[in-house]
Design brief:
This protein has 554 residues and is α/β, with parallel strands linked by helices. It has a domain of 42 residues. Helices cover 39% and strands 18% of the residues. Strands 15-16-14-13-19-20-21 form a seven-stranded mixed sheet, sandwiched between helices. Strands 1, 2, 3, 6, 11 and 12 form a six-stranded mixed sheet that branches. A two-stranded antiparallel ribbon has the order 4-5. Strand 19, helix 14 and strand 20 form a beta-alpha-beta unit. The chain starts with a helix and ends in a 14-residue tail after the last helix.
Amino acid sequence: MSAELISQGRAALGIELGSTRIKACLVDAADPTVVLATGAHAWENAFEDGVWTYPEDAVWSGLQAAYADLAAEVKRQYGARIETLAGIGVSAMMHGYLAFDADGTLLVPFRTWRNTSTGPAAAELTELLRVNIPLRWSIAHLHQAVLDDEAHLASLARINTLAGWVHERLTGRFVLGVGDASGMFPIGADGDYDRERIATYDAHAGLHRPLADLLPEVLPAGADAGALTAAGAALLDPSGTLQPGAVAAPPEGDAGTGMVATNAVSPRTGNVSAGTSIFAMVVLERPLERVHTEIDLVTTPAGDPVAMVHCNNGASELGAWAGLFGAFAAASGSAMPADAVFETLLRAALDGAPDAGGLLAYNHLSGEPIAGLDEGRPLFVRTPDADFTLANTMRAHVYGVFATLALGMQTLAGEGVALEQMFAHGGVFRTAGVAQRFLAAALDAPVTVGDTAAEGGAWGMAVLAAFAVHQPRIADAAASDPHIGAGEALETLATYLTDHVFAGAASVTADPDPADVAGFADYLTRYRAGLAAEAAAVAALPVRGIRSSNEGTA
């Protein structure tokens, strides 16, 4: 049955360009809970000329490799070929800066979200626009280029995110999903860029053309974002097997697809996505009362307001330690698969003291604005009287993944933001009952992990692609039914997820353990105090020869 579904072009494809892997996920377009096949390609960012970036050719070769891996899996499992698709969608790491001239030529290397060189611009814009402008937002990168009088601005015709760029190459449409667009420039109440703030910026910056002309068109989930073109199909699948025509979903950021993958798009819900970076998204019932530099105001893929706590550093340092222990196991003659190493070490953390025995782990491979750091230096710190055991070491490192996030979440708690459900996804949650339990302690709230936790954003984007296919079908059915009003023709994203995707989903919820909550609070108090040591390390130890920050696999 699956082979027939694929051969008849009734599958939807989600692609996500993450920090360490490009993943592809193929689902049944009519029932996206059915994952037909997956594919992946590992890639690394590079630190070149003081900028975290990915080479342009790595984007396209990586995209093709992930798709080829998916196609090979389809061939192996079903003996079928992917010739047509019902729907397709692209997501990617949010924010950053991609600048193009009128011919679509990239003017400067891709500046990723990891870069923290935009401090002066972000501070100036936060004051000017009366809303927090994070360092990694596209407008912060653009304005920093203005402040630095960069030569490429004379040729600048448009800017985009990584997801928007790939979507444009696949479909020919210069559009962006509202969730990803909200990381370029603030979104207004009408779901488009805030016109008043755009006018304020134009008057202030004096660019050679209006800012609105540089930005992609904003679309909500389910809107018409074009279709896969012949050129796009050939770019994705150079073998020529894949044909054009798939309905394209608006391209989204990894934060938005994480919300979809966890059904966290309604008020009083939230999710945590843990990978190379880690962030929490909380759907708001009302605007925040004050501007907080540690809180981003973004949106769901449907355009609802969201408070985002984004930390540049997630599970990479934990992955580096797992790699070290894996190398030791191999050297001892007892080699273990990487996943087995992770599971062994994470389960050891369960036996650690609630406060990690006095140990501290700072996972800052790069700058961390919430912690006040322009650069990062991974540190593992203990006092002479600390209880230095394997269990405490690993608990400290898992706590370290969540510590900076917890600092930001305390700000939301101070604003009275309430949560009924917090969902989590990402590779670190594959080992059941460990990272989930410690995150519940860090947030002092129940944390739910579903069956799709390891699939993550690629699956979430496949769901958005299926939603884009679903909407015209609903509209067509409504057109022939006089009892359905025009406003009822399309389903909301929240209704679609609840009724069609998560109605029978399996999940496990971990309630916070009081001892863990108290232990993590003690850990966080020491962690906050120890940030002075982290800052001193940044000042005393210059970076030399950094090639990549992607040592981990989580």
